[in-house]
């Protein structure tokens, strides 16, 4: 099969580059082939055509959408972590039906009920930190994210099962923290169970225990149903599709793992990048504080969520450090033309979100953190896609809500500074781009909101 702009390096070399330095791999390819190139990545099970041209993405997603199939089979590299029945593994009608069951619990009015919980958890975690002692910001943000997920999704607040689930899940994700160990997830030939002390063997056994804990929780809920529970697991257990069928225990289990992964790993990572960018640029922090202070002492969570500059800061963070680097692949079902190249049926095409967000023609000075660009221009869904495209993250609304409320609580209540003047370096951790050093910060004290001119005038005349 003749494929366009094929990279010349041997497949083995490309896979090493992809695992160890994905940003460098993609940027190097884009310098030679700016809009699309063909790569050989074993983890996706196929030769892939990478695209980052907005017009091509729009064509794939809209005008010629029927020529492409959205198949879960090309996402198999995530199966060991998320499970066989995860939404990520499904394609076609099965994916559509599952998504329809999941969406109501993660959007709309449900968000309002989570606002105070997120703010209270953030304050509880950050109040534990002593002043003038450096810490890696990603650690408290991971703790906040896990507690939000545990309470919002599972309704778990304490107890032996909660503690063990937290220990195991964090250990599972820690396994993929470095570019080298991430290779176990991305390169199936490395996945050999050589016993409990082997890396993959230990992972398999921890995964089995996670499955047992989740199934025990589901079985307990089924035996003791309660209409008073408001967590997402309880809602999904009672949800029915158009034919009146609910989700099996295995489907519920794997969706819980998927939401755990997305809600914990991705959200905490992007929040750590946000704190890093905000505190590297004093003018950004100053503008944010002025906007937050304008809401008064006890702002409503939805008022925080609607703040335009805070939204722009979150968007710019997601532009430079997207939650995921790629869309899920699609498969050409018939001959299709992209930028003068004819792709044959069976060709796998993948959207490169990272390269899209780095295009100079869309985002001048793309390496610079400039939230104002999102106030000056509205980007199309084919130019800015931090949560994916064809298979957008179902937890997008909750993730954005959590980011904004956590930033608001931290900035309004604590004086933080970066503890290291060296630039933070992105590093592959599983499928995300995480800060290699965890964003070292120091808390210098509590912050008090300055009195407004109106309040000061009232105090002087009293």
Structure description:
The protein has 462 residues and is α+β, with helices and mostly antiparallel strands. It has one domain (11-461): Cytochrome p450 (Orthogonal Bundle), CATH 1.10.630. The chain is built from 19 helices and twelve strands. The strands form four sheets. It has a five-stranded mixed sheet with strand order 1-2-8-5-3. Strands 4-12-9 form a three-stranded antiparallel sheet. β10 (426-429) and β11 form a beta hairpin. The chain is globular and about 65 Å long.
The CATH homologous superfamily: Cytochrome P450
Return the structural class: alpha+beta
The CATH topology annotation reads as Cytochrome p450
Number of helices: 19
What's the arrangement of strands in the largest beta sheet?
A: 1-2-8-5-3
What characteristic shape results from the CA principal axes? globular
Sheet with the most strands, sense and barrel status: 5 strands, mixed
CATH class: Mainly Alpha
How far apart lie the N and C ends? 83 Å
| Fraction in beta strands | 5-15%
Whole-angstrom Rg: 23 Å
Mean pLDDT comes to 84
| Structural domain count | 1
**Percent in helix:** 40-55%
Assign the CATH architecture.
Answer: Orthogonal Bundle
* Strand element count: 12
Low-confidence stretches: 453-462
